[in-house]
Design brief:
Layout: H1 18-23, H2 44-49, H3 55-59, H4 62-76, E1 81-82, H5 89-94, E2 98-101, E3 105-108, H6 115-119, H7 130-142, E4 148-153, H8 155-164, H9 172-180, H10 182-206, E5 210-215, H11 223-229, H12 231-240, E6 248-252, H13 259-262, E7 269-271, H14 278-288, E8 295-300, H15 309-323, E9 328-333, H16 343-355
Parallel strand pairs: 1-4, 4-5, 5-6, 6-7, 7-8, 8-9
Antiparallel strand pairs: 2-3
């Protein structure tokens, strides 16, 4: 039984799905490929569907979230669906006042700045994200042999939005809090780690086949600060998912210098952005975890997709070659699909990957 009282969805058996084979550190019969933000703004069918629908409302409408998640699977033939959601969904569902403002991003009504603010944060009731679980169940019934990846923001990135009150270039309030009041900081991340694990646990019980912990802003930190202020909380979330048996993907933006620390958080697959080559990333991950498998995801620069097919093809082939340095490789972008991207470019990338 799940915390909501509903029986857990029986786990699908997809032993030959290329993504899941790669996540085990094995070489599948074809290179798995999917794209972060593949379900989103670059697709005309998505823009039509979302024309009058606020983001958070769309994420909490099961039929709509299901259809948006399925759109890129139908169009591209990717090897995984990624649940259409947003990192702010569990905070919103818990009762934190916030909005996702078009052209700006998440904006928090009352930023968290002290111990009292941390204590006032609501706890996420699993029933509050039942619409997300319902979307997962709909998707499991529709996807056939295509795995579904669950999704959540990592505690540090959620904390950054809560402390800054919205997007930030320098994360000055966040860094000031962690250094000036470390006890308050760790209390905050502890609360957010619990929320994140609850949210991912609901998705796991509903039937997702893998999970991705997404740390958008971790790259603003030094390795020292990451290890002291962030790593224990991300590791707690990932450890809490170990009993599900699901592959765990951990991705951060600008985290090339943090890879040695990030791999110690315990994920099975390490996402890599475009700022570091995959062969170098493989060396760093292997050095940090010499007795485990080295499975990488990434890392084509999303902006390259605007450069025309000859350049894209050249870069895709380079990324695939460099990914060969890992035990297994999942081809992806080094961040999300840009809104200006021609969807046909993604189709051609999938065809190229699958032809190898």
């Amino acid at each position: 039984m799940t915390k909501t009282g509903a029986p857990a969805t029986p786990r699908r058996l997809l032993p030959d799905a290329p993504l899941l084979v790669a996540a085990r550190g094995e070489r599948p019969n074809r290179l798995p490929v999917w794209f972060m933000r593949q379900a989103g703004r670059s697709l005309p069918e998505y823009r039509e569907l979302r024309a009058e629908q606020p983001m958070l409302q769309a994420c909490m409408t099961p039929e709509l979230a299901c259809e948006i998640t399925l759109q890129p699977v139908r169009r591209y033939g990717v090897d995984a669906a990624i649940l259409f959601s947003d990192i702010m969904v569990p905070l919103h569902a818990a009762g934190v006042g916030l909005d996702i403002v078009p052209g700006t991003g998440p904006v928090v009504d009352s930023p968290v700045r002290n111990a009292s603010d941390v204590m006032a944060l609501p706890v996420l009731d699993p029933d509050a994200v039942e619409p997300v679980a319902a979307a997962v169940r709909l998707l499991v019934a529709e996807l056939g042999q295509t795995p579904l990846i669950g999704f959540a923001g990592a505690p540090f990135t959620l904390a950054s939005y809560l402390v800054e009150g919205g997007p930030s270039r320098h994360h000055e309030r966040t860094k000031a809090l962690m250094h000036s009041e470390p006890e308050v900081w760790h209390a905050l991340l502890g609360r957010l780690a619990e929320l994140t694990l609850t949210f991912l646990g609901v998705q796991a019980a509903a039937g997702v086949d893998a999970v991705q912990l997404f740390d958008s802003w971790a790259g603003v930190l030094s390795e020292r600060d990451y290890r002291q202020f962030v790593l224990p909380h991300s590791a707690w979330v990932l450890a809490g998912l170990a009993g599900t048996g699901l592959p765990r993907i951990h991705f951060g933006v600008g985290t090339g210098e943090l890879l040695g620390a990030m791999v110690q958080a315990g994920a099975d697959v390490v996402g890599v952005d475009w700022r570091i080559s995959l062969d170098v990333a493989a060396q760093r991950v292997r050095a940090a975890r010499p007795h485990g498998t080295t499975v990488l995801q990434g890392n084509l620069d999303p902006a390259i997709l605007l450069a025309g097919w000859p350049a894209v093809e050249r870069e895709v082939r380079r990324v695939i070659t460099e990914g060969g340095a890992a035990d297994a490789h999942v081809l992806n972008l080094g961040h999300g699909v840009l809104p200006e991207t021609d969807p046909d470019m993604l189709t051609r990338i999938v065809e190229l990957a699958h032809s190898r």
